[in-house]
Protein: Ribonuclease P protein component
Amino acid sequence: MQREYRLKRRNDFRRVFQAGQSFANRQFVVIAYGRSSSGPPRIGISVSKRVGNAVVRNRYKRLVKEITRHWISCLKPGTDYVIIARNSVVEMNYKQVKSSLFHVFHKGKFFVSKPSL
Structure:
């Protein structure tokens, strides 16, 4: 994922957590916050230590980054998203993770146009 699409700063994460709107399913929680400034959508990813060791957590971060990289042009501009992976994500493969994330993003009406599955 390119630098302009990443949510990195602690203050940005805090703002999304405090003022954002959340949507969830059994595997993911997605919190969205519309910034006052326009610009590209930015995405931050969080995986709890309860999910597994560092190798497992980083694997799911990479999966989510790859999926959202393909969807970035379909997301609402000027919005920050934080994606939180839950414990049940461990048993899932790439296709299932993609389907589950699509479900949450669709539920939250975050897409401007429909992404390819």
About this structure: Helices lie at 10-19, 54-71, 94-107. The chain has three helices and four strands. The beta strands are 21-24, 28-34, 42-47, 79-85. The mean pLDDT is 93.
